[in-house]
Specification:
The chain is α+β, with helices and mostly antiparallel strands and about 350 residues long. It is built from seven helices and 25 strands. The protein folds into two domains: about 130 residues, YerB-like (YerB-like fold, 3-Layer(bba) Sandwich), CATH 3.50.90; about 140 residues, YerB-like fold, CATH 3.50.90.
């Protein structure tokens, strides 16, 4: 009897041990399968917990950093520029002498080096203010100087920090050789106790699925002419393989100086606004308050829109509602009402 009791006890312990092992093992397998399902579901829906306000692109990490708006030189002697390929939005607007200048706004990406940096104008300052951006320039017009010195916008200027935060490149001559690194922008913000947590207001964006359904007249190529100077005519060519536009100016593709990476754009927003020359040097005022005509070019298509100033942001409108951008990078070209968009802008369907 003792012998049988020992055998029964041994069998009982063996069965109990196996049961416990199975009990531990099965939950691990189930958890693994459930996690796989969750990951697959998220991938299928392309869901992200956060989104960049100026591009609409998703992110796994928080996107609440402040935007930085930098005045970029566009004189032929300043090309190719540094950092433009990392900008979320670039505003191209006439300064004096029928020369365009860029306001490049960075928030989702941080280029190592940016420039050449150029001087401030009042209408660029207002655009930067509308995006809660830290404004970067080297120099200023009389109107812009008053705005900057009044504390209208947080700013860093090369007139104050030339040779410290700003550096001069040896391969170009002034005024086409002022540069600033992103690290120095953050350093300057800290020195001046500027907050870098003021997230810019978000634009509206299409989902990736809705972007594939964009309709409109064909616009495989877009040309924008600024008066008689061919040096500042810009051309955008649509690449159907990537769904993006390549940019050309002065007959050459716009690329980054250091990396040679091309500028690739998802939205071309063309705005018509009243320009007025105000002094002998050809400085201008530009009416960014009244609204007006516009074109929105996306996914090889173009649509006529209106534009409106929404608390400092220039947004496309149709039938009283804001028109969403395609997720990605945007270039805004501002043209004068005289000669107007009909004479300044042309589209090619091929």
């Amino acid at each position: 009897m003792k012998k049988w009791a020992v055998i029964v006890a041994a069998v009982f312990l063996l069965v109990s041990g196996c049961s416990k092992k199975e009990t531990v093992k099965k939950p691990d397998e189930n958890v693994k399968k459930d996690v796989g399902k969750v990951e697959q579901k998220a991938d299928e829906k392309n869901e992200f917990p956060y989104y960049f306000p100026l591009t609409g692109k998703g992110s796994q990490t928080e996107t609440d950093s402040r935007a930085v708006a930098v005045m970029i030189n566009n004189h032929p002697a300043a090309r190719p520029q540094s950092g433009l390929n990392k900008a979320d939005i670039v505003y191209e607007i006439l300064a004096e002498g029928n020369i365009t200048r860029f306001l490049a706004v960075f928030q989702s990406e941080r280029p190592k080096n940016i420039g050449p940096v150029r001087s401030a104008r009042d209408y660029y300052i207002d655009l930067a203010k509308g995006l809660n951006a830290l404004y970067i320039a080297h120099g200023y017009s009389p109107e812009a100087k008053k705005m900057l010195e009044s504390g209208y916008i947080d700013n860093l200027n090369g007139m104050v920090y030339d040779g410290t935060l700003f550096h001069r490149a040896s391969f170009r001559v002034a005024p086409h050789n002022s540069y600033i690194t992103y690290d120095n922008i953050l350093k300057g913000a800290k020195m001046n106790k500027y907050s870098m947590d003021k997230t810019p207001p978000a634009f509206k964006f299409l989902s990736e699925e809705d972007a594939k359904k964009v309709t409109g007249a064909d616009a495989k190529s877009v040309k924008i002419s600024y008066y008689a100077s061919g040096d500042f005519d810009c051309v955008y060519e649509y690449d159907s393989a990537t769904g993006k536009y390549k940019r050309f100016q002065g007959g050459e593709q716009t690329v980054d100086l250091e990396t040679k990476d091309p500028i690739l754009l998802d939205n071309i927003f063309i705005v018509e606004a009243k320009h007025e020359v105000i002094d002998k040097k050809g400085r201008r005022t530009i009416d960014f308050q009244s609204g007006g005509k516009g074109y929105l070019v996306q996914m090889g298509k173009v649509n006529e829109v209106e534009w409106k100033n929404e608390n400092g942001r220039i947004v496309p409108m149709k039938n009283g509602e804001e028109v969403p951008f395609v997720q990605g990078k945007t270039w805004v070209n501002v043209v004068p009402t005289d000669p107007g968009m009909q004479k300044s802008v042309s589209f090619n369907v091929k």
